Amino acid sequence: MKSYILFYKPFGVLSQFTRENNYKALCDFGPFPKDIYAAGRLDADSEGLLLLTNDNAVKHRLMDPEFGHERTYSVQVEGIPDDDALLRLRDGVLIGKRRTKPAFVRKYDLDPSFPERSVPIRFRKDVPTAWIEIKLREGRNRQVRKMTASVGHPTLRLVRTSIAFLTLDGLQPGKYRKLTRHEIEKLYSTLCLC
Question: Active-site residue 43, yes or no?
Answer without folding.
Answer: yes
